[in-house]
Amino acid sequence: MSIPVMMTVAGSDCSAGAGLQADMKAAHAMGAFALTAVTCVVSEAPGLVRGIQEVDPELVADQVRINLEHFPVSAVKTGMLYSPAIVRAVHEVLAGTGIPVVVDPVMIATAGDRLMREEAVAVYEELLLPGAALLTPNLDEAAVLLRSSVNPERDELPEAAARLAIRYGCPVLLKGGHLEGDCRDVLAGPDGRMLGEWNRLRVRDVSTHGTGCSLSAAIAARLAAGDGLATAVERGLEFIAAAIRDHLRWEHPVRVDALKLW
């Protein structure tokens, strides 16, 4: 039996709700074997980031390199890259491999903490986004990439996704989970043409820490398994919707919600 292999290049979340821990769970649930390359160690819980320790960029690069040397990696997902040096290191190893890369532009935590240094954004845009298999920004990240002080509104999502796709020459899944009301997600091709749109009822009163990480990992897992882009996106969105609907909750010592990713 052959199992598709994907790799996540991301930060470590000690709460296991986001970052590479969530990526592994999502990828495995979607039928792929998940490799990891750790970029940062983050001390966090849902709604709270207390510390970030960057991994040496050369070690990040070697984690990516040794995985590529020893496993048949069919897709890569990048998450928290944090610094210009890490972005460059990851790009240098992946460039020319032909492996599809799903880029989750992890920039700002739900709690408002920066998860990418400001000086890294330009390097990110120059090296990693052009030619990506898919870019998956949420509304806050889209505003940063669009140089806008205002997040796109519901009716503006298709236009915003198209602008990003044309700017970076890659497909864009613009996620509307932070909208008021129900959720709307749109997928634009690299030419700006709409490839898909999904609308879902919002699950109320639940923390959605880690949804972006898990979604991009799920999509990468399905690309590794051979799905086309629109199919991989749709299956990833269905998986995340179920994970939110079937979420877990603990009340001690404070209320904590978690996605059910298995």
UniProtKB/TrEMBL annotation:
The encoding gene: thiD
InterPro entries given in the database record: HMP/HMP-P_kinase_dom, PM/HMP-P_kinase-1, Ribokinase-like
Broad class of enzyme this protein falls into: transferase
Entry EC number(s): 2.7.1.49
Gene3D superfamilies: 3.40.1190.20
Domain of life: Bacteria
UniProt keyword Chaperone present: no
Signal peptide feature range: none
Name used for this protein in its record: hydroxymethylpyrimidine kinase
Alphabetic keyword roster: Kinase, Transferase
A GO term for molecular function: hydroxymethylpyrimidine kinase activity
Xref: NCBIfam families: HMP-P_kinase
Domain Pyridoxamine kinase/Phosphomethylpyrimidine kinase residue range list: 13-251
Annotated Pfam families: Phos_pyr_kin (PF08543)
Record flagged with keyword Transferase: yes
Pathway terms, separated by semicolons: Cofactor biosynthesis; thiamine diphosphate biosynthesis
